[in-house]
Structure formats: C-alpha cells, structure tokens
Amino acid sequence: KAKELGRNCIHEFDFENDVAIKLQYRELEYITQGFSNNEFLLFYQPKINMETNEIVGLEALIRWQHPAEGLLPPFRFLPFIEEEPLAIELGKWVIDQAIKQHNEWRDLGLVIPISVNVSPLQLQHEDFIEQLKEVLFLNNSFQAGLLEFEILESSIIKDTQHIAEVIDQCKQLGIRFSLDDFGTGYSSLSYLRKLMTDSIKIDQSFVIDMLDDMDDQAIVKSVIELSKTFGRTVIAEGVETKEHGRQLLKMGCQLAQGFGIARPMPASSVPEWIHLWKTSSPWIA
Ligand code: C2E
Ligand code: MG
Ligand code: MG
Ligand code: MG
Questions:
Q1: Which of 147, 178, 216, 259 is the most exposed place for a label (fewest CB within 10 A)?
Q2: Alpha-carbon torsion 2, 4, 9, 10, what sign?
C-alpha cells in the first residue's frame, strides 16, 4: 500500500515537473525569438542628489516590447531565462546598449554616469570579463569610470570569493559597483563585508513604508549608518514622495531614486527630462 502511494506521488510529481519544464521551454523559445526580433529595449530612471539637485546617474532597466502583449517589465521574462545561456547574451547586449546610449547623450553634451543591473550568475560566467573587455573595446570612446554595475544580493551567489575577484577585475577597468536591493537577501551583511562595492542601494520595500512603519524606518536608518561605517555611498530607491526625500535627508542619505523624482522612461525622453529637471526649481526646496 505504502509502496503504491509512494509510486503515485512520484508519478504525480514527475507529471507536474514535466509540465513545468515544457512551459519553461516554451517561454524560453518565445523570449529567444523576441530577442532575435530586436524587441528588447532599455528604459532609464534617474538618480539624484537631493541636496544639490544634481543628476548623479541613470539606471538602465530592461523592457520587452511584446508585439501582442505590449510593454513587459523584467519579472515577466527574466525569471524564465535566469539560468539559460540567453541570459548571458542578453546581459552583454544590455551593457553594450547602455554604453552606446550614453555615448549618444554625451555627444549632445549630457554626461551622466549609467548603471546596469547584472545578475550574480552573469558575473560568475567564465567569459564575463572577456566579453566585457570586448564591449569596452568596441565602444572605445566610452570612459569605463562612467559605468556602474548594480548586483543583486542573491542566494545564487555560489562562490562569493569568485564574485569578489570578478568585481576586483572590473574595478581595475574603472567600473563602479553597487549592492542592489540591500537588506532583502539572506546574507546582506556578509556580502557587504565580502563584496567591495562602492555603494549600497537601500531596498525600496523599506523606503516606501518607512513613513508609517517604524520598523522599516529603523532599518533604513541602520543601513545609512552601516554604509557610513563601511565607507560606502548610500542611495535610497523607492522614493515615491517628497516626504520620503525629506526624511532621508534628515537621516543623512542624500542620493535618491524613485517614482516621486521620475519613473523609468524611454531613452528618447531622457534629454527633455534632463532639461526640465535643470530648469525647474529644486525638487526639495
Ligand atoms: P531594481 O534594479 O531594484 O530596479 C528598481 C525597480 O523598482 C524597477 O522595476 C523600477 O521601475 C522600480 N521602481 C523605481 N522607483 C520606484 C518607486 O518609487 N516605487 C516603486 N514601487 N517601484 C519603483 P523594474 O524596471 O520592473 O525592474 C525590476 C528588477 O528587474 C530590477 O530591480 C532589476 O533587479 C531587474 N532588472 C531590470 N533590468 C535588468 C537587466 O537589464 N538585467 C538584469 N539582470 N536585471 C534587470
Ligand atoms: Mg537596480
Ligand atoms: Mg534595487
Ligand atoms: Mg528591486
């Protein structure tokens, strides 16, 4: 009897697993197709210094302009390709595309550092440095010091030592690093210590709720203190209102990003946004 049950369980499990694999395979096929049809594009979201009103960066955020479903955010496709070779290819494309876009803006006189999200798996890939060098070589008028990689702390960081070495090699090329979504991973503090990133991004979930949730406020405060102790720059994401901004300034965090400042926008809207930003009165007066 038990054996029978066991067998049933195994059978059922296999069946579900099979369906999941087929689904995953299908998604992967669609995404690969979309990529070869050039349906991916980058949106950009500004980062500002609330004290000086200066624009300190533009973060590239990937989108899929799906022919039938419209504009899709990353969570609709990245999870399906996370561990596939396509993620490596797409990751390389994002870096190249962001650099080319930066160069275009630079030629208009708009020189603003760009940030690109890189997954830990991407960083851990054996060809990462080589491919990065190739991209930099092919865009040789680009100054690597104007590029920042945002790394997600994640359970898929298998080998922190190796990641630390890759970060080191990138730094030798002049690239800067930021620890994204800080505080949400399962070993934030150990990453902070082992990964020599220039800055820390306080996860938006803490920032968004900090105005009425005292626990979140305490976390935000602690991360700001922590970043100072460790000599890192700190930036808050999820700054949805000026009140968030004012609180953060009081707590000693000047850098911010969020819907209250600007939503991610298509590249074509960026020059106009910069112009408006520079000609308007300061965001926090
Ligand atoms: P992230 O890097 O932490 O990016 C911030 C996300 O929060 C973005 O979502 C942005 O639109 C959203 N956001 C910004 N300000 C606010 C705010 O004030 N309130 C709220 N509620 N949300 C805000 P998006 O564009 O959907 O990206 C989601 C995540 O996907 C990113 O989180 C990043 O981890 C990943 N991602 C995006 N582009 C890439 C990419 O090119 N490569 C990789 N590997 N991951 C990417
Ligand atoms: Mg990011
Ligand atoms: Mg983030
Ligand atoms: Mg995030």
A1: 259
A2: positive
Tell me: the pLDDT tens digits for 86-124?
999 999 999 999 999 999 999 999 999 999 999 988 999
Q: For residue range 171-188, what is the model confidence (pLDDT) as tens digits?
A: 999 999 999 999 887 778
User: 2: buried, middle or exposed (CB in 10 Å: 19+, 13-18, 0-12)?
Assistant: exposed
Query: How many CB atoms are closer than 10 A to CB 104?
Result: 13
Exposure string of 197-235, with b = 16+ CB inside 10 Å and e = fewer, is bebbbbbbebbbbbeeeeebbebbbebbebbeeeebbbb
Number of residues that this document lists for the chain: 285
- Report how far ligand 1's centroid is from the alpha carbon of 61 (Å): 6
Q: Quote the ligand 4 centre to 73 CA distance (angstroms).
A: 12
Pocket probe for ligand 1: among 81, 124, 204, the residue whose CB has the most ligand atoms within 8 Å is 204
Which ligand is in closest contact with the Cα of 182? 3
d(CA 161, CA 171): 15
Which ligand gives the minimal distance to the CA of 59?
2
Ligand 1 neighbourhood includes 175 CB (under 6 angstroms): no
**Whether residue 4 has pLDDT greater than 70:** no
Residue among 42, 43, 58, 61 whose CB has most ligand 1 atoms within 8 A, to mutate: 61
Ligand 1 atom at minimum distance from 237 CA:
15
| ipTM > 0.90 (yes/no) | yes
Taking only the tens place, the pLDDT of each residue in 116-146 is 999 988 999 999 999 999 999 999 999 999 9
Ligand positioned closest to the Cα atom of 238: 1
